[in-house]
């Protein structure tokens, strides 16, 4: 995910961004840097010393160790008036919790991106601490737009965002796979079924975002009386399709809350 965001930033900045990678897996950092023409930092400490924005693209269970490693550098730069903004994407880690691990007045942003950021089609929620002024927040938002749609949001909603758009791509992939399986059952070759399923979902999502119409209204436009679509919708409803999807988002949201 860190690479996906840096790729988007590199695209949006049109070569003006100075990007560097630090990773416990040195080969991974070198490969990412080579693809973007970026730098490789030998340590997290050096990255913290030289960066204006530090993207913490690590698992929640690893973040405490990373923050402990860079905290002395961040505190030193805070005292000098040149503090970097810490941008965390670790589920369950609140802005307050990140600050408690580094410094109470550290500038911290919290984001929740999703994997479509890899193809610049991500959904990225952004919340910032009061220590990040509007100019810095706007700059961060502009950088992230290279990876997809950015929405400034109150931090209290981020666990819900994690359950919906953070986990949502996996739910969508399951649906696309099932849709393609249905096509295969009906006689389509596998490659054709997958192509049609993926483009159908892609186009349907675009209909919502580009027309502004409610999905229920768009669904009704497809369902002619006594037709094929309403027969399929009836089958979905008999399988508690909508209720199951709602419960999937709720389960992911609960898990994000547990990680806090």
What does this structure look like?
There is one protein chain. The protein is an alpha/beta fold and about 260 residues long. The chain has 2 domains: about 1-160, Rossmann fold; about 170-260, ProC C-terminal domain-like fold (Orthogonal Bundle). It has 12 helices and 7 strands. The protein has helices at about 1-10, 25-35, 45-50, 60-80, 95-100, 135-145, 160-165, 170-185, 190-210, 215-220, 230-240, 240-260, and strands at about 20, 40, 55, 85-90, 110, 120-130, 150. Strands 3-4-5-6-7 form a 5-stranded mixed β-sheet, sandwiched between helices. A two-stranded parallel ribbon has the order 1-2. Helix 3 (about 45-50) crosses helix 4 (about 60-80) and helix 7 packs across helix 12. The longest helix has 22 residues, at about 190-210. The radius of gyration is 21 Å and the shape is elongated. The model has no long low-confidence stretch (mean pLDDT about 95).
List the helices and strands and how they pair.
Blueprint: H1 2-12, E1 20-21, H2 26-36, E2 39-40, H3 44-50, E3 53-56, H4 60-79, E4 85-88, H5 95-102, E5 108-112, E6 122-128, H6 134-144, E7 148-152, H7 158-166, H8 168-185, H9 190-211, H10 215-222, H11 228-238, H12 241-259
Parallel strand pairs: 1-2, 3-4, 4-5, 6-7
Antiparallel strand pairs: 5-6
Number of helices: 12
CATH architecture of the largest domain: 3-Layer(aba) Sandwich
Helix content: 55-70%
Order of helices and strands: HEHEHEHEHEEHEHHHHHH
User: Oligomeric status of the shown chains?
Assistant: single chain
Q: What class, by secondary structure content?
A: alpha/beta
Record the strand order, biggest sheet.
3-4-5-6-7
Kindly state the number of beta strands. 7
Span from first to last CA? 20 Å
CATH topology of the largest domain: Rossmann fold
Radius of gyration: 21 Å
Low-confidence stretches: none
Q: Give the percentage of residues in beta strands.
A: 5-15%
Main sheet specs? 5 strands, mixed
CATH superfamily of the largest domain: NAD(P)-binding Rossmann-like Domain
Look at the structure and give the mean pLDDT: 94
């Amino acid at each position: 995910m860190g690479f996906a965001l840096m790729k988007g930033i590199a695209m949006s900045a049109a070569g003006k961004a100075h990007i560097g990678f630090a990773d416990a897996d040195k080969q991974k950092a070198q490969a990412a840097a080579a693809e973007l023409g970026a730098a490789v930092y030998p340590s997290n400490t050096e990255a913290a010393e030289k960066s204006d924005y530090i993207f913490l693209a690590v698992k929640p269970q690893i973040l405490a160790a990373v923050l402990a490693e860079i905290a002395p550098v961040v505190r030193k730069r805070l005292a000098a008036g040149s503090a970097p903004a810490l941008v965390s994407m670790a589920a369950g880690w609140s802005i307050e919790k990140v600050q408690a691990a580094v410094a109470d007045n550290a500038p911290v942003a919290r984001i929740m991106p999703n994997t479509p950021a890899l193809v610049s089609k991500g959904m990225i929620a952004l919340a910032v601490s009061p220590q990040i002024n509007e100019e810095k927040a706007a700059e961060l938002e502009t950088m992230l737009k290279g990876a997809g749609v950015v929405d400034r949001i109150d931090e209290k909603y981020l666990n819900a965002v994690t359950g919906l758009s953070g986990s949502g791509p996996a739910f969508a992939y399951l649906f696309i796979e099932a849709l393609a399986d249905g096509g295969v059952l009906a006689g389509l070759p596998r490659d054709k079924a997958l192509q049609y399923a993926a483009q159908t979902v892609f186009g349907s999502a675009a209909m919502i975002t580009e027309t502004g119409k409610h999905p229920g209204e768009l669904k009704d436009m497809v369902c002619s009386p006594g037709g094929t679509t309403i027969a399929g919708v009836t089958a979905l409803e008999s399988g508690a399709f909508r209720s199951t999807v709602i419960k999937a988002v709720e389960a992911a949201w609960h898990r994000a809350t547990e990680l806090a």
